[in-house]
Amino acid sequence: MPTLYSLLFAALLQPAPKTGFVEGTVVDAVSGAPLAQATVNVRYEKAPDGSGRLTSQNERGNTAETGIDGRFRLEAVAGIPFHFAVTRKGYTSINERFGHEDPNPYSLEPGREKTGVVIALQSESSLAGTVFDPEVQKPVEGITVRALRRARESGNEYWAPTQQAKSGADGRYVIGALPPGEYRLFLTSNLAPKLIPAPPEPSPPVFDYPPVYYPGVADGPSALPVNLMPGASLGSLDVKISRRRLYSIRGEVKLDGSPTPVAFFSIAPFGEDGQVHRRIGVLDAPGPFEILNLQEGPLKLSAVSTPAGGVLQALALHDTVLQSDQDHVLLHLLPGTRASFAVSTYGLRDDAHDPLWTELKASCTVRFSPRARVRMGDDPAAKAGADGRGAVDNLFVEPVQVSVQGIPDGWLLRQVLYDGQPAEPYRVEMNPSAPEHLFRILLAPAANSISGGVREGSAAAAQALVLVVREPFDQDTIYSRMKRATADGDGRFSFRTLHPGAWRILAVPAASSWQAANMLILSGAGEKVDVPESGSISIQLDARK
User: Fold this and answer.
1) CA pair distance 144, 146, nearest whole angstrom
2) CA count, 13 A, side-chain hemisphere, 194
3) Who has the most CB within 10 Å: 138, 143, 195, 274?
């Protein structure tokens, strides 16, 4: 076993990383005057220790402070790309890639110096105004005003949240430390839905303010843009907002068996993604309840029992459209039901021998994931027997996603039948009045593939990210319909076993994020391909930025 001294001696024998130096000046972006007391920090874009993993610790390199002439000198590891993070009081900081819209990182040679680097900082700007309610002729206190700045990444534009402020007793807000650019202002109230044990009498009416954009419009495209120059202070961005009535739901939660806490969740908007937007609160035990501060429109509520073990035991869903206060709402928490399933080959007669089980000896597990409420505990799942049949318990009558694990190589999930009717696997709407819940899950062989190469300019795009998405898709279903692959060193990629039909394919450089690639596809980018039942498709792609 090596001793401490031998380890230290071995470490001393390791060659020190080769370095170089970079010199430059930090200046005011408008006047060009040098800026003293600016802090300049090296930020590496690859792990400088060669570990391959970039962390918040090893991305940071040496730091220097500019002198009275605005100059700095830094040592950095040679051969490792880096950019600068720069801060200075009174100026907006550079905390991301230098030249964000067109990244241009630096790289040094061992023992060499790079001089003449100029980093321009923009003076901080500010936005201010007053929030006013014309109906009651009073300023509005406590409204959060967010500054959304127009930004660009990989060729896509979006509105990125920056600084925010709250309106005071006089309705006035001030948002400082803003870089120059084009902005939208987004105003929201902080009044959230609230769950309480129901008092004997209904609570008094509550009014609140809906989200709006400056100068008082409901949607972003109608917002009035605010162009902010370096060092500018715009102080008359006043917004008139009108209050609206909020509603309440009063009722009772019933649960058979031992009392247990009951958690309430709201799901909004009432969409296909089924994402839980807000946890409303918890009742200590079943009984009367009231939910306050609910907005007008479609609403889905879920109430779930939350025993000490954290495993969901009973559920109640309540779908409604709020246009007034609701009373006498009964949420009867019921345990899950039993559902059976059969996994078989698509197009095969019921009495025929199924190759999935007689030849391939498939071992499939069927999983049912909730699509319209918060998940608690493991999703109901069961393994198919030797005949492809199985059953799950504690499955709640709600929208579920059906997925199959252990599908044999070269096969795919072709269709799902629920109670004899075709259903979308990503969202099966279960029927509360169905006498039984039977899922028929049909698999099919698909000896097809898409392969090809990716180029970036005139060279092969090594490690490029390639995405294929089955059409049709939207923002809610893109993830469940997508496959990803990474090109090899020669820019080559391949996908096997795809659903026959229309797909969209897109490649982005290795440095791009897959979130940016998703945005490209959602905007209509990419090439369309028609995948057959069997056969190969070859395609050449240009990496999109």
Assistant:
1) 6
2) 11
3) 143
- Strands (DSSP E) contained in 46-135 are 60-65, 71-77, 82-87, 113-121, 125-133
Model confidence pLDDT, tens digit, residues 259-288: 888 888 776 543 334 444 578 889 998 999
What band does 1 get if pLDDT is binned at 50, 70 and 90? very low
Instruction: Decide: 119 and 150 in contact? Cβ < 8 Å.
Output: no
Q: b/e map of 468-487 (b: 16 or more CB within 10 Å)?
A: bbbeebeeebeeebbbebeb
Q: How many residues in the chain?
A: 545
Q: How far does Cα 101 stand from its chain's mean position? A: 22
Tens-place pLDDT, residues 416-455: 999 999 998 888 989 888 888 999 999 999 889 999 999 9
Distances (CA, A) of 484 to 24, 133, 155, 522: 42, 50, 21, 15
Give the CA radius of gyration of the chain. Answer: 30
| Alpha-carbon gap, residue 294 to 320, rounded angstroms | 12
Sorted by sequence, the CB contacts under 8 Å of residue 502 that are 6+ apart come out as 470, 471, 528, 529, 530, 531
DSSP string covering 172-229: EEEEEEEPSEEEEEEEE-----EEEEPPSSPPPPEEE---EETTTBSSGGGSPPEEE-
**Listed residue (502, 528, 529, 507) closest to 517, CA to CA:** 507
Q: From the CB of residue 48, how many other CB atoms can be counted at a distance below 10 Å?
A: 21
Question: Tens digits of per-residue pLDDT, 75-100?
Answer: 988 888 888 889 898 888 876 443 33
Instruction: Identify whether the C-beta of residue 108 lies closer than 8 Å to the C-beta of residue 79.
Output: yes
Number of other CB atoms surrounding residue 462 within 10 Å: 16
> Residue 413's closest CA among 439, 452, 382, 451?
439
Question: Nearest CA to 77 among 11, 117, 136, 17?
Answer: 17
- Judged by DSSP in three states, 48 sits in coil
Q: Provide the greatest CA pair distance for the chain.
A: 89
Which residue segments constitute the domains of the chain, with CATH numbers given? 17-121 (2.60.130.10), 125-242 (2.60.40.1120), 250-333 (2.60.40), 337-445 (2.60.40.10), 448-542 (2.60.40.10)
CA distance 314 to 304: 6
Q: What is the 3-state secondary structure (H, E, C) of 431-473?
A: CCCCCCCEEEEEEEECCEEEEEEEEECCEECCCCEEEEEECCC
Calculate the CA dihedral of residues 286, 292, 295, 298 and round it to 10 degrees.
20
Q: Read off the tokens for 424.
A: 């979308």
| pLDDT tens, residue by residue, 347-385 | 888 778 899 998 999 999 999 988 766 666 678 999 999
- End-to-end, the C-alpha distance of the chain in Å comes to 52
Q: What is the pLDDT of residue 268?
A: 52
Q: What residue type is assigned to position 147 of the chain?
A: A
Provide the pairing of β-strand 297-305 with 315-322: antiparallel
Q: How far is CA 110 from the centre of its chain?
A: 41
